[in-house]
Structure formats: C-alpha cells, structure tokens
Amino acid sequence: MAWSIADVARDSGVTSRTLRHYHAIGLLIPARTAPNGRRYYEQEQLLRLQQILLLRDLGLSLGVVAEVLQRRSSASTIEVLGRHKEWLLREQLRLGQLIRTVDSTIGNLREGDEMKPEQVFEGFEHNPYEAEARERWGDERVDAGYERMRGWSEQDAEFARTGYPRVHEAIAALKAEGVDVREPSVQDLIQLHYEVTGLFWTPDREAYKGLGQMYVDDERFRRTIGGGDDSVVEYLRDAMTVYAETELPG
Fold it and tell me: What pTM did the predictor assign?
C-alpha cells in the first residue's frame, strides 16, 4: 500500500514542503514518483520518517540525522527507540502527577480548604544537588544561577527542562554507532549541552571539563545520564573535553 505526499503530510504533521526538501537532500526518498511528479510513500518510508522525527526531537541537525541513519543497524534503531520510549514514559508519569496536583489545588481553592506543603508541591521537580552545589561552588555562584532562572522566558524554561535529556539520548545513540567524540555530529550536541548549561552559569574551559569529570565521578550523575551504562557518561565527558579545549577560553 502506498500513501501520497498529502496523506503523509496530513498524518505526520510534516509539511509537504518539508517532505520535498527531505527528498531533495536524499534523507527520505519516496517509494516511487508518478509521471506527474506526485510522490508516494510505503511502509519502509513511513518508518524512516518516524526515525527522522525522533532524532530531530532529540535536537539533532538534519546532517547528523542523515549520518546516524546511514550508520544505523536495525539493532541500534531498536536501542534508540527503547531509550526514547523510557524517557517518554517518565515524562508521562511526571506530567500526570502535575495534572493531579493542579486539579487538587483547583478543588481545594474552590472549597476554601487549606493544603499542606507536600500537597501543593507534589510532582514538582526539586534540585537534590543544591546544598552540594553551594558547598562546592559557593553561595554567590548558586544565587547568580537562580537570578538567571528568574529571567527565563517560557522557551528558556522548556529548553532547560528538556535540553539535557535530549543530549543524553542522542549522545548514547552516537556512541552506539561508534562515532568519534571529535566528529561534528557529536560536537554539535555538546554545543547544545553547553547552551543548556549557559542558562544556569557560564563555565570556562577548565570548569566545563571539570563538570564532565564530575558526571563520571558522581554515581548519581552516572545513573541519570547513562542509565546504567557508564561508558556513555565517559563518552560524554570526553566529548565535553574536546569541546572545552577547542571552543572555550581558558
């Protein structure tokens, strides 16, 4: 069975213009093109488009997406999809809890009831590292980070919430493909990581390298970033070191 470009655009949310662009750059070639120029897609192309959209959702550029898809085996595709599914399930649980908290707040406000603090903030993410950060870097730097946060736009807040998970998932995918940490596809992700970090503070060369080493040394960060695979965390650290040495002032 084949679907026209209009069908695919309607069902995927990707515009026909974007699909034509993907064809032009060789990223998504239709199963066939009719004499009148109309493009048709089959199951294989739909699955490839799903992979493209997942990788784009992780923050990868089209060039990096093309590189990953070229290298990818069916086994690594399943691995990346599995990681993405785990992240989506965690987000689903978190958002579900937030919805219940907001519903509870609305109900209590309507009834004039008082809520306990643990009810008001149930489901919100808290920073378990604040006390340690104050001890490691001092109150002034931590307070400066919170001052930056107060000036965030909605887009900044969303970027801060999703940026690191996107980097971690994409880094794991590139490591699984055996991509060298010096390759542009990896360094583009580290640029994204540095931009997320810059929402909180601006590390120089040594500070950014130190951050990468802390990820490796601290079991909590290793578990959060690597999901049990310490080699992913070491890969991230090595990539951050390359970025720091080539892009950041001393």
Answer: 0.53
Residue 8 pLDDT more than 90? yes
Question: Distance between CA 179 and CA 185 in Å, rounded?
Answer: 8
Residue closest to 215 by CA, chosen among 240, 190, 196: 240
In the structure encoding, which two tokens stand for residue 203, read together?
Answer: 């590390």
Nearest of 143, 148, 141, 159 to residue 203 by alpha carbon: 141
Rounded-to-integer distance, Cα 247 and Cα 250, Å: 10
pLDDT in tens, 197-217: 888 888 889 989 999 998 999
pLDDT, tens digit, 9 for 90 and up, residues 216-245: 998 888 888 888 889 999 999 999 999 999
Burial 65-99 (b: 16+ CB within 10 A, else e): bbbbbeebeeeebeebeebbeebeeeeeeeeeeee
